[in-house]
Amino acid sequence: KFVRLARLFFCVLFAWACWVNWRTALYTPQDYLGYADLAFFSIYKQFILGWFSRHIVVMVGFIATCQGLIAISLLLKGWIYKAGITGAMVFLLAISPFGVGSGFPCTLIMAYALYLLLKEKPNYIWHQPNKRKVMTLS
Predict the structure, then answer these.
(1) DSSP states of 7-58 as a string?
(2) N or C: which terminus of the chain carries fewer CB neighbours within 10 A?
(3) Residue 79: Cβ within 10 Å count
(4) Cα distances (Å, whole numbers) of residue 110 to 27, 28, 82
(5) What is the per-residue pLDDT across 45-64, written as a single tens digit (0 to 9) for each?
């Protein structure tokens, strides 16, 4: 119902996630290893404690950068907006198996909300929707 407000909230959320993930990856990367215990599937746990544990800064830096790009895309329109929304949905669905570590089931609800935003005809977030012009005879 409040499309522009929803886009703004998602923009702030992804911008904040970008900042937090970059900061954590650079200063305390070992914090991410704790997510292995929260994962629903053993393949996620194996990945975190395996390859990921040796490449945390690169992986989380890449993810954080994508989160920043998603935040920017939510302010725009056209193909970049659609790409950002799609990327955000894929991201949220991909982290859902981390359970409470990802805020499950909130991630699924947010992915669905982004799907609803994708169905709307986007304009720049700062533009007011077109309102009917009423002609008056004077």
Answers:
(1) HHHHHHHHHHHHHHHHHHHHH-GGGGGGGGGG-SSHHHHHHIIIIIHHSHHH
(2) C
(3) 9
(4) 29, 27, 16
(5) 999 999 999 999 999 999 99
Residue identified by tokens 């704790």 is 34
First vs last C-alpha separation in the chain:
36
pTM of the model: 0.84
Name the nearest CA neighbour of 60 among 90, 95, 86, 84.
95
- Residue whose structure tokens are 């990921």: 52
Q: Tally Cβ neighbours within 10 Å of residue 43.
A: 10
Q: How far is CA 66 from CA 31, 39, 102, 133, in A?
A: 20, 22, 17, 40
> Are 17 and 61 a contacting pair, CB within 8 Å?
no
Q: For residue range 91-113, what is the model confidence (pLDDT) as tens digits?
A: 999 988 887 677 778 999 999 99
Structure tokens at 116: 């609803």
The answer to whether 95 and 107 have CB atoms below 8 angstroms apart is yes
Q: Residues 7, 117: contact at Cβ < 8 Å? A: yes
Which residues lie below 8 Å from residue 63, measured CB to CB, with a gap of 6+?
A: 21, 91
